[in-house]
Fold this sequence. Notes:
The protein is of the alpha/beta class. It has ten helices and nine strands. The protein has helices at about 15-25, 40-50, 65-75, 90-105, 115-120, 130-145, 155-165, 200-215, 220-235, 245-255, and strands spanning about 5-10, 30-35, 55-60, 80-85, 105-110, 125-130, 170, 175-180, 185-190. Helix 5 links the parallel strand 5 (about 105-110) and strand 6. The protein is globular. Keywords: Kinase, Transferase.
Amino acid sequence: MGPSMVVVGAVDGGGGDAAVAAARIGVDVRLVGAVGADAGGLLDGLRREGVTVDDVVVTESGHLEAPHVRAVVNGVAELGAVLVTCEVPAAAIAAGVGTATGLRVPVVLDPAPVVHTVVGLFDLHPVLTPNAGELTELLRLGGGERAAAPASTAAGAATLHSWTGAPVVVTLGAEGALLAAEGRVRRLPAHDAPVRDATGAGHTLTGVLTAGLAAGQEVEDALVVATVAAGLTAAAPGGRDAMPTGDALAAALDE
């Protein structure tokens, strides 16, 4: 088994989706979240997918606490990367990003939805993965209305990259993705397949991207694989059910 990755996020939302996407391709994934007492079926489904859910807290409120996030991330042996989604409380988001940064492992921050907390974490250099609308909102929060009206999406990605000093991935659906890294912006095309159902495709991308970073890949190489995985998800109906296995992804990459 290679390095592990941790996903901090909503068990029944983007966090769970991204964890399944990574587990489908054979990565050791631990999901950190909180659910209510009636979520046993949801957890059973994630276990069947190969996601470790031992660190999902079952509480009456379903509220994820920052100390729990820090304890889990600090306690994972062979930790390769951490993915944090913004569907959890602000303190939990900050705990996930901050702890991963302290351990010097790659951290991906999916700003969906965009919250003020993300701007406060720019100095920790997470890899941000906004879509075009989220990019605009991040630029607005970070630099005001003028910054939120760049000449192009690529220019906006470059600006956000200059603020964080880390790679920025802007997901563009059927148009692929933009990668702003090392002072330049390049476009990666989408996987060449018709889109039937885009549900879960974005979360597939973030999950597989983080898996690649956990395995030691460079961001651009990991993103190439992640865009293909997202395209395979969008090419079939079913959301999580459409996420590719490792064999299916390898076959598509060989085409």
